[in-house]
Amino acid sequence: MPTEDEISGTSKRRPKQSPTSIGNHKLKPSTLMLGYGFDPALSEGSLKPPVFLTSTFVFDSAADGKRFFEGVTGKRPGGAEGLIYSRFNGPNQEILEDRLAVWESADDALAFSSGMSAIATLLLTFVQPGDVVVHSGPLYAATETLIAKILGRFGVSYLDFPSGASREEIDAVIAKAKEKGRVALIYLESPANPTNALVDVEAVAAARNAAFPEAQRPPIAIDNTFLGPLWAHPIQQGADISVYSLTKYAGGHSDLVAGGLVGRQGLIDQIRMMRNTIGTICDPNTAWMLLRSLETLELRMERAGENAAKVCAFLRNHPKVESVGYLGFLDEGSSQADIYRRHCLGAGSTFSLYLKGGEKEAFAFLDALKIAHLAVSLGGTETLASAPAAMTHLSVPDERKQALGITDNLVRISIGVEDPDDLIADFENALRSV
């Protein structure tokens, strides 16, 4: 006869560990996305994790409850040993976090309700009143607003360097920042949104390490949404935390909003404490949808990347196109090409298209699209196009937009998984309206 625990699916045995290798053969992330971190025996043999729609979890004993809370409150290292409350953890979120960490061989990961809630929680964890944040530019407009305007209300200041800055330029900015106060965080975005400019993460890490003794080094966090997790692994180049809008390629179907952080254990544990307090964890249904999406992430990104290469080859020589900010077109011998060679595994499928003209021409192009959708965001199965200067980066001051290359003739395009010849026909037709 089955026991009551077996009937209810709450067997006290530890979850069966998912294999990560077969003999000396290490399994690839794309394979691990289909089962890693989930033991079907603990969910009635279900092949896929159920959605755990509960706000709280029952303890086997009062001693278990105390031990779990000791972990979640930091009184005992290692975090919660079990499930407590859905503001802290849940089965869907924990499986998702296990799988997110796999892509970059990171120690751990955290899932959030949006990309911006991940970034906000990161900043709140490490930045105190009077501190200085060093960052690359441009950043996603909401990130810039959070650092400059919201944290600025609490005496936090920032200094930035252009995305393509050299080691010498980065050294100079860090030195100047140290004069202003405690440098709490170095925050990067590469490729930059929306210009596609790359940051030399290795140079930033070397500059940070040279400027601070080990015990005082500020963490390096990098928004890896545009190329990660398939085409860029910045933790390998010296970053401590990789930041994701999981809404984009990880979600990949334009039907959810979520964020993620992956990185070094000690830093992730600190951020988890802040997330536990302010409640920015993603919900179980969104986590479940992301688990579905991660199964096809490599397939989707590879197809979109192949499509982008074909579309950009067409756009590159069109008479109405000024230039195409596509990573596959970087000039050989340039600093950007050097960064790409050292840091990137692919050119991605999101790029900047500079039309000849200004806002009028950009709007005419966008309004004439038939297949590509006029919408913000990126990384979905469908092709999206938008005008950053008038939309996602509208709040950025005009002089800063000009300095960062966010011009009125810039159209940001995220290529999807449609037939590439159909997309080329769509863009060719839209360019006739310019």
From TrEMBL:
UniProt cofactor(s): pyridoxal 5'-phosphate
Keywords: Pyridoxal phosphate
Residues annotated as signal peptide: none
Protein name stated in the entry: Cystathionine gamma-synthase family protein
Family (UniProt): Belongs to the trans-sulfuration enzymes family.
Pfam families hit by this protein: Cys_Met_Meta_PP
Highest rank taxon of the organism: Bacteria
Species lineage: Bacteria, Pseudomonadati, Pseudomonadota, Alphaproteobacteria, Sphingomonadales
Region described as Disordered: 1-27
InterPro entries: Cys/Met-Metab_PyrdxlP-dep_enz (IPR000277), PyrdxlP-dep_Trfase (IPR015424), PyrdxlP-dep_Trfase_major (IPR015421), PyrdxlP-dep_Trfase_small (IPR015422)
